[in-house]
Amino acid sequence: MSGDYLSSLLTAMATKRSVFVSYHHDNDQFYYDQLAAVCDQACQFIRDASLREAIDSDDSDYLSRAIREGYITGTSCTIVLCGSETGKRKHVDWEIKATLDKQHGLIGVNLPTNPLTITGKYTVPDRLHENIQSGYAVWTDWVTFTSSIAKLKEIVESAIARPSLLIQNGRELMGRNLS
Length: 179
Fold this sequence. Notes:
Elements: H1 3-14, E1 19-22, H2 25-42, E2 46-47, H3 60-72, E3 77-82, H4 90-101, E4 105-110, H5 126-134, E5 138-141, H6 142-145, H7 149-160
Parallel strand pairs: 1-2, 1-3, 3-4, 4-5
Helix pairs in contact: 3-4
């Protein structure tokens, strides 16, 4: 690594980032609370403004704009906590889309509650999966992500630094929750 790159990485890691967390509130609140407690005590850079109530509209352009402006604006990165039901939640899909529209960093964190499928893979939201495949989104597991504040910051900075030309965001918004 060049000295300039290392210097800029260390400077970025010292910066307190505002991060949005997207997750399935009914199933994964425990993990959000753990993450928020660690981050709040150590670096105060986490934001819980996730969409809990439906926005009363069927207009996908309006929905995207409302989430982007009301929830994602002011953050640098979105962390998606991936439990067994996360991929079935329309609000998670909308939050990921808004994150990608803003070209913010995107991180998928596999939670211990997300079992392997019969094909040996984990269930993640489709839009997140496409961006993991393209190389835009960072994919990690809960233990690695929360192993230390330094590791968490390193992963966030890595996500923010990904080139936006890798973004895959052409999928239509989910219209309803699945099952």
